[in-house]
Amino acid sequence: MHVEDGLFAYDADAVVLDGAEREAVFARAVEADPGWADYERGSGRRLPVVALTPVPGPPGGPGIDSPAAFLTTVHESFRRELALVRAEVAAAGPRLGAQLRLNCLSACHGLHFHHTAEDTHLFPGLAASNPELAPVLERLRAEHEVVAALLARLEAAVRSDDDGDSAAVLADVDALIEQLEAHLDWEEQQLVPVLSAPL
């Protein structure tokens, strides 16, 4: 099926969940928004729960017509996602709920995947065609390691068995956002002109 989530458009496999898996996912949805349980009760039927698994390939969408546009679009999605996570953590009260934990871990996983892809695919290609970028790429890789350490710290706090101390998690989210914003801004300043150049 084709999915459009407001930022990206992509193809995904859709699977209707059942049994214990359906119950676990529905329980997380109800925790995030209790209205789902009320709606299911009021409807007199069991609501379907569908899992979407993206089909491998780059996301597309309006305005994503070059490597530079793709990079800045992905970066903007991380900026927005982390701003949402920060707002959710700030409003969480003393403990983190399951959906908030999932949102944090999803953002962390996405950032880790993005930086790994840059380190293993984008940067080697840029280095081969633009040797003058060697110091830039070296700095970006070093910044990826700093961000990875912050992600690991945040993931550990979110995975904690003590229901998560939201004040500590908020401090970790703020540290990550500060470092990541500086990193993304500098990366775009250095790489967007190169990625925008005609081949």
Automatic annotation (TrEMBL):
Residue ranges annotated as coiled coil are 137-190
Q: Which domain of life is it from?
A: Bacteria
Which UniProt keywords are listed?
Coiled coil
**Signal sequence bounds:** none
Ranges for the Hemerythrin-like domain? 68-195
Entries under Gene3D superfamilies matching the protein: Electron Transport, Fmn-binding Protein, Chain A, nmb1532 protein domain like
List the InterPro entries: Dimeric_xanthone_biosynth, Hemerythrin-like, Split_barrel_FMN-bd
Q: What name does this protein carry? A: Hemerythrin HHE cation binding domain-containing protein
Q: Which organism is it from?
A: Jiangella alkaliphila
Classification of source organism: Bacteria, Bacillati, Actinomycetota, Actinomycetes, Jiangellales
